[in-house]
Amino acid sequence: MEDNTIIGKDIPRTDGRVKATGEAIYTDDIKLPGMLHGKLLRSPVAHARIVNIDVRKARALPGVKCIITGADTPKIKFGNWRLFPATQDEFPLAVDRVRFIGDEVAAVAAIDRETAREALELIKVEYEELPAVFDVDSATAKGAPVLHENSPSNISIDRKIQYGDIEKGFAESDYMHEDVFTVHAVSHAYLEPCSSVAQADIDGRITLWTSTQTPYIVQCLLAATLGLRENDVRVIKPYVGGGFGGKMELRPWEFCAAFMARKTGRPVKFTLTREEELACGRRRHAMKLHSKVGFKKDGTLVAKDLKILLDGGAYNSMGPTATFLCGNFGAMLYRYPNYRFFGQHVYTNKPPAGAMRGFGAPQSLFAAETQMNIAAKELGIDPIDIRIKNAMVTGDEIPDVATISSCGFIESLEEVAKMCDWKKKRKNLKNGKGLGVGCYSFISGGVFNWFNTQYPFSSAEIRAFADGTVHLLTMASDIGQGSDTALKQILAEELGLKMADIRLTAADTAMTPQADLGTWGSRVTLMAGNAVIDAARKIKEQLFGAVSAKFNLNVIFDMECRDGRVHAAGKPDRGMSFGDAVAFVQKTNRGEPLVARGSYTPRGKGLVSPAFSFGAQVAEVDVDKETGNVKVNKMWTAHDCGTVLNHMAVEGQLEGSIQMGLGYALSEQFVMDNGRTLNTTFLDYKMPHAMDMPPGESACIETYEPEGPMGAKEAGEGLASPTAPAIAEAVFHATGYRCKDLPITPEKILKGLGKLED
Amino acid sequence: MSKIQFEYFAPETIEETVALLQAHGEGCHVMAGGTDLLVKIQHRVTHPKVLVGLGKIKELKRISFSLKSGLTIGAMASLADVAAHPKIKKHFPSVAHAAASTANVQVRNKGTVVGNICNASPSADNIPTLLVLGSRVNIAGPDGETRMPLADFFLGPGISALKPGQFVTSLNVPVPETHTGTAYLSLSQRGQLDCSAVGVAAMVVMDKNKCKDARIAVGACAPIPMRTTAAEKMLIGKPLTHKAIEAAAVRASKETKPITDVRASAAYRWKMVAVLTIRALIEAQKNARKQ
Question: What pTM does this model have?
Fold first, then answer.
């Protein structure tokens, strides 16, 4: 694509300067006249019946303007899986029962945060404690206390995927391996804690500024829980300081802010503390994975049987999606002729697990990639060779689930091997050093319509002006991943304009076109990008017709928008400036503004995703066999994200993924005691720092994804998966300790090496 | 959990400070850099009624050095000042290093070495090194100036030997004998910037191959940062062979009383005290030879 002027170039992010200087306005920066400050009272017990709540003393505290409990609310349950109302299991404030430490019980709005906080202390709640369960085994045991009245057991959802003949597959296998893996919960640890401000207008309609990835979903679910119509709720997304999947649902404080704003007539703001985020916030699913794989002697994969128990915490949250996706990711990367998956989502009395970067893939692929490494070792085949032998290629299908329309996996494996000098290095490393490989495949947005929207999955509106500028309106949500920049790039390229010629209004549900399902599953570039292209092409149709007529061009001529002009292809003089062309179109339409709507909804692409990305990563580690400390010396990555729209942006996603993968593999975990999270600050929640980042090298394998905008596909989430299995294999290579139970802590390594007793 | 509310005083002399501490009694806290105290207040762990900030007392910022009286670090000397001080880097490299590797740039610019000591945290990274160097704290109080060995200063987690009305004005580190070497090693689950799960400092004074004096201090493995004196005694007057070092390290480990907490298990800490003590003694011995 050398012809491009903007796509594939290192375009700096359009929001970089305001964020670096602190000028960017985040939700907590918003201050409205008369605004009240909200605080949430949370359950101190893991499972209990609420006997009584006495708010009289708190209400009497000077400065307290409003206190609500579940009893004051319309008691309407919510949940993202609107297509299946039975999965919607959460009240904005607890009704009669609490199910985890942190469950929201009451809300206070007061003249300042300190007063609200003081009022919480004065609310007296009487609990009758119930037996609780804290892991999937005890939650699924016979006679276990059941968390939800309308679910006969703690298994709230199950999903199956099956193709081929699994029994025949294992019968034909020369080599089989069966393992149980456990993976842990981790925090999104976005730098901006959740924050929401709600204002009610004279008719009681709500405007909500909120730190969210999914303004449209929040609008719909908030309206439903308040008993309002969708159009009575307007959601605006200011700058968002990261989400990683943790901000894609309706949250209790969004409801409370809106409900109390209507009740008091004053704006109400809630901002969570870091301690609340870590103690009670959404987290990545902990899982127990039982996986059996069968191979031929030569390393050809024959069969895989995967059973997963997801530790969902107290509510479904995004668990249904994670349950399905685990099974999908378990079937990705390699050709499994016979495959069976059974996933069960289990309620436990812990903070609910939700979506988090990779959404089932980091867990499922940790098991899959570790088993590939085990098989390679036991069959005497190089770990990269065995992967190349079984790798998916363009055109592969997972029956009834997905079609792979572009795939640069083999190229990624070959490239990463070349970059790190794999074969030579792996043989010649000194004692205590190790080299390991891990791979990933990921989706570019989801197909399955669990939200049951009647709108297109992504939409864009373009308004063109006679001064040569355009206004792009979209509900696509940039939460820090850089999609505003990517969408502007796509539009600028399509219309032959400069980045500075584009004004962007994003993610205001009352002003931008319905709808966009939000930022999750790495869907924005592909889906909103396609919607932008669709709208831009409609604008071009009009411009081309008018300019062609004005210059009396032969109808067989191609037309183009380039360098701020609209003209016959390759003949810049046979045309006019973009602005003049817009004015000309408007005049031919007797003053009508030049506006176009575009949209994208995936169709005929299976159940999962319109496109899949692939990649391979190698980690080199140094393990101190006396202390168990692991130092990651270097990471090499080669990945296929289709056409690279912006190298700097892809690089940024890669580095962020490695940082998260590093924490997932080595240092991050929740220390829990009977449902209570003990490490609720960044001092003891060990997210790696900038100084802990290893150096790295990366290469993009460019493929062209036919379903993607200009050939692009996912680049943001998939890379969260390969780091942990690559490091785990490197640790095995260095020490002989094979980790099947993340994270890889110094104590586990020493125990594995027989140097520390259990 | 009531509202955060306190009075704030910024005295200009040590005498004024003592008078304020006496006048307000319990609930009156001294603040140096505030990097720990303000967080504790915000988290409702500490509920001061009165804060006395030391920032306006000029003499407390001072760092001085002479061969006779050693190094004196004022209560308001920041970690960054200590880390960058040329005399400290030359004569007490391990003190400069401990300050330089405490927390991050922002904390080092505000936080102080003396404040780190007065917090009396068992895991404070500056303390083990200062313990093995035989440091003393200078204390001002209603009965005038007193001096106390640092080893006697810690009574429990967050509890120091300071009496009502007293505060630490400075820290004194004596000049070590020639052929002295020190080293400090720590472990935590996250690499560079973390609160230690185990920390060990060692100091040896060498007379050719013989160990004239030895000190070992362990952090985060007991209610206080502690010296392991029995282990030290095993080394003093003997050649520092690897065997002797190993035996002392095992002994040091036995002297500690670690617990299991969010950062590590007791079993791991015990094991690591031995590993780190061996390494610290070897490094200290190397450093001693450099002189």
Answer: 0.96
